[in-house]
Amino acid sequence: MDILLSLVSQFCLALGAFLIFSGGVGVLRFPDFYTRMHAAGVTETLAAGLILVGLMILAGWSLVLFKLVLILLFIMITSPTASHALAKSALHGKLEPFRQVKQEGE
Amino acid sequence: MRYTVSIFTLLILFWLGNSGHYSTLLLAMGFLSTGFVVAVVRRMNVVDHESQPLHMLTWKLLSYYGWLFVQILRSNVDVVYRIWRGNDVLSPTVASLTMMQESDIGKVIFANSITLTPGTVAMDLENNRVLIHALTRNSIDELQGGDMNRRVAQLEGRN
Amino acid sequence: MLAGTAIALLVVMAMALIRALLGPTIYDRILAVNLFGTKTVLLIAVAGFLFGRPDFLDIALTYALINFISVIGVLRFFEYSNAQTDGKGA
Q1: Host domain of residue B17
Q2: C-beta separation of C15 from C33 below 8 A
């Protein structure tokens, strides 16, 4: 059972590291600010979650687990707020989206 | 009254979880500082249904977040695939959408869900329209299908 | 694997710094700084496990709070003061 748990934790950490790295590549590679924001979003949802879940499995039942859950909740609540504030202020700062295609209607 | 009780319980749990020391002195200090914070937020008049939407805490909310988790998983895979494929597979789109929700908290949950799923970001909210920037046209089409919109609107319930 | 994750986090932090230096708009820089901040939180948490000192998690939690507040604060400052320069300055 212990071996299985540690395998799962290793897997979560490895996948999280890969996703984080992909997000970093996206931030460097994407053509404009708005698209880079989506790449940053990848690292803040699933990748952060996977790394923290991997650490939670390592921690076992203790206060450390509670703190990790708290950090995860905090990232999940604040990251959309920060992205929205960033997008909104870029929009008000008259930053034109790259290859913008207007779609009217619902 | 129940909002005061709920914020007090929440803060006490927060203290207990973060402290890890359970001597009488430290517990008393925790109790005192929690009481002080509750007094301050009551004076600020922010202890109400807006800061603590207790009426939203139902099983429906839990199942909605389960569904949202699956959506987040799917769009993460999609965005990572597009990162490695390069800029040719991108079709950045801006579109606005009508929100079906009536209450403020419903609109906030909807806009937050849009932003939380990678590939779509809610840029601006006015009245009942939300302006969205998406990495690809597909994800805009999916949002315009209205699945997420309807689910959040059902979450509100009528009370 | 903990060490591997820590190295990946450091590499991504370096990438964020490169994006912050390249710009080109002020919003790219704020995005990069925000990314750097959240990765720091994760790095502190991973380092706590790597060195066997879970107390580091308290620091990670505090850092998460400060990072969020600082990004929001900087954005409030730029949202309205930078409109006439098309966000191209700085």
Answers
A1: 2-43
A2: no
The shortest C-alpha distance from C8 to chain A (Å) reads 6
Distances (CA, A) of C20 to A79, A83, B119, C16, C29: 18, 16, 21, 6, 4
Examine the domain organization and report whether B72 and B127 are in the same domain: yes
pLDDT 10s digits, C44-57: 999 999 898 888 88
Position C26, amino acid = I
pLDDT in tens, B25-61: 999 999 999 999 999 998 988 888 777 777 777 888 8
Q: Which residue type sits at B30? A: G
Q: Is this prediction's ipTM beyond 0.85? A: no
Among C65, C76, C75, smallest CA distance to C26 is for C75
CB B138 within 8 A of CB B79: no
Q: Are A48 and C42 in contact (CB under 8 A)?
A: yes
Domain total for chain B?
2
**Residues on chain B touching A97 (C-beta within 8 angstroms):** 92, 94, 133
Query: Which B residues 26-65 touch A at CB under 8 Å?
Result: none
pLDDT tens for B107-137 read 888 888 888 888 888 888 888 888 888 888 8
B155 close to B64: Cβ distance less than 8 angstroms = yes
Residue B105 belongs to some domain of the structure:
yes
* Per-residue pLDDT, A100: 46
What CATH number should be reported for the domain whose range is C2-85?
1.10.287
Nearest CA in chain B to A79: B116
What are the boundaries of each domain within chain C? 2-85
Q: Of the candidates B12, C42, C52, B78, which has an alpha carbon nearest to the alpha carbon of residue A68?
A: C42
